[in-house]
Hints:
The strands form two sheets. This protein has a two-stranded antiparallel sheet. The chain is globular. By secondary structure, it is an alpha+beta fold. A hairpin with a 5-residue loop joins strand 2 (24-26) and strand 3. It has two helices and four strands. Helix content is 27%, strand content 19%.
Amino acid sequence: MKIHLDSDRCQGHGRCYSIAPALFTYDDNGQAALIVTDELADEQVGLAQLAANNCPEYAIEVA
Length: 63
């Protein structure tokens, strides 16, 4: 599984990097950015899904 981030939808709420700082960071404008761009490790999938579920803009997809 991989994380897909639609940066055009991101509004910089910061929930993703608060929930999963090992997977997300933020850029100079406060927008989310991915740290992990490869396949997720099994232990990362749950955190990635939690971050996706908490994104108010639905900018994160785990597939």
